[in-house]
Amino acid sequence: MVEIQINTTQNVTINFTAASVGERILAYIIDMVIKIAYIIVVYQIVFKYFSIDDLLSDMDYWSQMSIYALFYMPAIFYTLILETWLDGQTLGKRILKIRVVKIDGYQASLADFVMRWFFRLIDLNIMSGLVALITVITSQKNQRLGDMSAGTSVISLKNDINMSHTIIEDLKDDYIPTYPTVIKLSDNDARIIKDTFLAAKKVNDYDTLIKLRTKIMGVTEIKERKSNSDIEFIRTVLKDYNYYTQDMKS
Q1: Spatial distance between the Cα atoms of 225 and 222, rounded to a whole number of angstroms
Q2: Helix then strand then coil, % of the chain, to nearest 5
Q3: CA neighbours closer than 13 Å in the CB half-sphere of residue 202
Q4: Distances (CA, A) of 199 to 39, 52, 106, 229
Q5: Residue 100's beta-bridge partner residues?
Q6: I need a surface site. Which of 30, 76, 112, 199 has the fewest CB within 10 A?
Q7: Taking the chain, what is the end-to-end CA distance rounded to the nearest angstrom?
Q8: What whole-number distance in Å separates Cα of residue 231 and Cα of residue 225?
Q9: Which residues contact 213 (CB under 8 A, 6 or more apart)?
Q10: What residues contact 230, with CB distance under 8 A and at least 6 apart?
Q11: What is the pLDDT of residue 250?
């Protein structure tokens, strides 16, 4: 089992388990089956049922290839399209609960997914995927060439998740919020705050807690905190955020 350390934009290190070679291969097979099924359905319906094949027979080779490519475009760009739309997942990856992530902590961009997709020509099409298999097995972060070029890796989402790994806080029914302006935060802000808070509190990193408290007060425009303790202040902010947003998420 390979662990990947990802440094977030707040300089917090989070450990993830890299997806195994078996999981990646199985996800690839599932995606391949989906693409082949799409190609067969399109061919039978469009080219056979509607007799498009008969029309193509009178065209030159390049015109025929252009029309085939047009209809098969979703299969050709399947991985690129889905990883971009589904935040690093294809249908196969979603079924296997694995995901492409940036190892520098930033959100993977379209350019990153394009880079991974482009290198599939080398990783997966040369020597029947042997290049990808060798690089994933031998690299420290289970990366194929496309991952190395894009600065990404594939992680498993099957790790046990408890309350400390999410932005959810356990609130009592009679909880009374303190800071209404926490609604200026986003879910991503709250997640980063909680990750940073837990990491700093664990090692008694008071400098980080002070910086985090200052940043929170600046973003939420909280003028005065009700507690002298940075730990209590940040904990209250997280609870307040959950209080004000729980109805939106239900």
Answers
A1: 7
A2: 60, 10, 30
A3: 9
A4: 48, 61, 18, 17
A5: 154
A6: 76
A7: 36
A8: 12
A9: 225, 230, 233, 234
A10: 206, 209, 210, 212, 213
A11: 46
